[in-house]
Write a structure and sequence with these properties.
By secondary structure, this protein is of the alpha/beta class. The protein has 17 helices and 15 strands. It has helices at residues 31-41, 44-51, 95-114, 154-171, 176-181, 188-193, 205-219, 226-232, 237-253, 266-269, 274-289, 305-311, 324-337, 381-387, 392-402, 416-423, 434-444, and strands at residues 16-21, 24-29, 58-61, 77-81, 117-119, 127-130, 133-136, 142-144, 293-299, 314-321, 342-346, 374-377, 405-411, 446-452, 458-464. Helix 3 packs antiparallel against helix 4 and helix 4 crosses helix 7. The longest helix has 20 residues, at 95-114.
C-alpha cells in the first residue's frame, strides 16, 4: 500500500497516521487515539454531525485485513474515512470560506464540551469542503476533557482563524499570502502591530489580539507550567464555553466590505456580443455532454458560469481564479444554492500553491492533489502570457502535463483586451499569435474541434492528448 505523501489532517500527530489506497482513506490509531475514538463514536455528537454532513463519515475496520504499508501491529485500530473529492487549504479560501470553517470549528467544540470532550487543536487544515459545505475531517482531534483542562487550541484558533479574518475585515489585508508563507498562522504580536489605537475598540481586537500579544511577551520565556496551574486553580469548562460564545459572536459579525477588484465586474464588462457568448456556451456544453467527467478544473472561472455548465456532467468541479473577491462572490452564491459539486478556490496560476511544510510533504502543491481529466481555460491565456510574462509554449506544456482533455480559448491580438494589456508594454511577445499557438497545441494534443467566434477575435479549441 502506498502511504500518503500529503496528509490534510495532522501530519505531525504521533497518535495516528493517514494512508491512501485505491481512492480509499485509512487512518491507523495508537492505543491512546483508539480509546478517544471509542469515546467519540459513542456520542450523540458523532452521530448528529456525521448525519448533517459536518463531520467526515468514519468507521472502524479490521486492522489485520487492511495492510498499511507497515506492520498492522503498529496500530491498535484502523479507521476508514469517506474520501474528500479535492483537498484544499485555507490560503486558497476566500473570506467567507475561512469564516464558515471557523464557525464550524466553534460549533463542534461547543458540542464536544457538552459531552465532556474537547478538540485538542484548532487548525483550519482540519476542515475540508464538499463544494460549498465545510466538513471536519480530523477525527483524532477529539479527546475526552480532563478536569480543569484549558482550551489549548485557543492560540491556534486565533492565529489561523481569527487574526486572518480580523485583518481582512478591519484592514482589508489579504490573509492568503500570509497563511501560505506561515503554516502556523499570524502571531499575536504581528497582528497587534497592524492594528491602530482606534482598532482596539473593534470587536475582538483588545481581548484576543492586544492582550494575547502582551501575554505572549510576558510568558514567552517562563519556566512555569501554566497548564498545570490552570488545572490546580480549578479551570472549569464553563470558562471555555463563555470564551467560545464570545468568539462565535465576533466571527459571525465580521464582514469583508470590499466591493471592487480587477475582475469583479468582468461578466458585465466582458468584450463579448450576445452572439459570441451564446456560441461559446454552446461549445462548452457540447464538450461537457460528450462524456462523463470525473474531475474538471475551470481556470480563470470568474463567477463560475462555465463551472456550472460542466458540473451537470462531472463528478466534481474545481473553480479557480486569482481574484479573491470574485471567488468570494462565487462561494456565497454556491453556499446559498447548497451546491456540493463546485469547489471555489483562490489561486494565481502564474504562482500556484506549491508543496509546503516539513520536507515539502505536509501541504501538497495544487497540481499534485488530484489532476483533472478536463480543463477549461477560457479567456485566460492572454493574461497568463502577456499579463504575467509566461512563455506561451510553457503554459501549453503545463496544461498538457495536467489534463488529457482541454477546452481553451485563444484571444487574438485584434481583441481589445489584448491591446489593453500591450498598451503600456514593450511588445516582446512575438510568439503570441494564432499560428504559433496552434503549432504548440498540436504538438501536445490532438485538436478535435476548432471554432472561431463570430467576432473573429477569439477562437475556441477542444483538444485531447490522445485520439478520442
Amino acid at each position: 500500500m502506498r502511504e500518503s505523501v500529503f496528509e490534510p489532517a495532522s501530519f505531525r500527530d504521533r497518535t495516528s497516521r493517514v494512508f491512501y489506497r485505491d481512492g480509499a482513506v485509512f487512518r491507523g490509531l495508537n492505543e491512546h487515539a483508539w480509546q478517544e475514538w471509542r469515546a467519540l463514536s459513542a456520542t450523540a455528537l458523532f452521530r448528529r454531525f456525521t448525519a448533517e454532513g459536518k463531520l467526515i463519515p468514519t468507521e472502524q475496520i479490521d486492522a489485520a485485513a487492511t495492510p498499511l504499508g507497515s506492520s498492522p501491529q503498529e496500530w491498535s485500530a484502523v479507521l476508514r474515512h469517506e474520501p474528500i473529492p479535492f483537498i484544499s487549504y485555507p490560503y486558497e479560501w476566500p473570506f467567507g470560506m475561512l469564516k464558515d470553517a471557523a464557525l464550524l470549528h466553534l460549533e463542534l467544540l461547543q458540542a464536544a464540551l457538552e459531552e465532556e470532550m474537547i478538540l485538542k487543536d484548532a487548525s483550519p487544515f482540519n476542515v475540508q469542503w464538499r463544494g460549498a459545505q465545510p466538513i471536519f475531517i480530523d477525527i483524532p482531534s477529539f479527546e475526552r476533557l480532563a478536569p480543569g483542562e484549558p482550551w489549548v487550541g485557543y492560540r491556534q484558533f486565533c492565529q489561523l482563524f481569527l487574526y486572518p479574518l480580523l485583518l481582512q475585515a478591519y484592514k482589508d489585508i489579504p490573509y492568503q499570502p500570509w497563511l501560505r508563507g506561515s503554516l502556523e498562522g499570524i502571531a499575536p504580536e504581528h497582528c497587534a502591530r497592524l492594528m491602530s489605537v482606534r482598532d482596539l475598540f473593534r470587536a475582538g481586537v483588545f481581548t484576543h489580539v492586544y492582550l494575547q500579544a502582551k501575554a505572549q511577551s510576558l510568558y514567552a520565556h517562563t519556566s512555569r507550567n501554566l497548564k498545570q496551574e490552570f488545572r490546580q486553580a480549578g479551570f472549569h469548562k464553563a470558562v471555555i464555553q463563555a470564551n467560545l460564545r464570545r468568539l462565535k459572536k465576533i466571527v459571525q459579525r465580521l464582514r469583508w466590505k470590499r466591493t471592487t477588484s480587477a475582475w469583479a465586474d468582468y461578466e458585465s464588462q466582458a468584450p463579448y456580443s450576445d452572439s459570441d457568448h451564446e456560441q461559446k456556451a454552446a461549445f462548452v456544453r457540447q464538450v461537457a455532454r460528450s462524456r462523463p467527467w470525473r474531475l474538471v478544473w475551470d481556470l480563470g472561472c470568474n463567477l463560475g458560469v462555465f463551472s456550472r455548465m460542466v458540473a451537470d456532467h462531472a463528478s466534481y468541479v474545481v473553480a479557480i481564479d486569482a481574484d479573491a473577491l470574485v471567488i468570494e462572490r462565487l462561494y456565497q452564491a454556491l453556499k446559498a444554492e447548497k451546491n456540493r459539486s463546485i469547489l471555489p478556490l483562490v489561486n494565481n496560476l502564474a504562482d500556484p500553491s506549491p508543496n509546503l511544510g516539513w520536507r515539502g510533504r505536509e501541504r501538497g502543491a495544487l497540481v499534485e492533489r488530484g489532476k483533472p481529466d478536463l480543463v477549461l481555460c477560457l479567456a485566460l491565456i492572454h493574461h497568463v502570457v502577456i499579463g504575467n510574462h509566461i512563455p506561451l509554449t510553457e503554459f501549453v506544456d503545463w496544461l498538457a502535463e495536467m489534463a488529457p482533455s482541454l477546452v481553451i480559448e485563444f484571444v487574438t491580438r485584434d481583441d481589445p483586451m489584448v491591446q489593453t494589456l500591450l498598451r503600456h508594454k514593450a511588445d516582446h511577445y512575438e510568439d503570441y499569435h494564432t499560428g504559433y499557438f496552434e503549432r504548440c497545441l498540436s504538438e501536445r494534443f490532438v485538436v478535435v474541434r476548432r471554432e472561431p467566434l463570430r467576432s473573429a477575435m477569439r477562437i475556441l479549441y477542444y483538444a485531447t492528448r490522445t485520439t478520442p
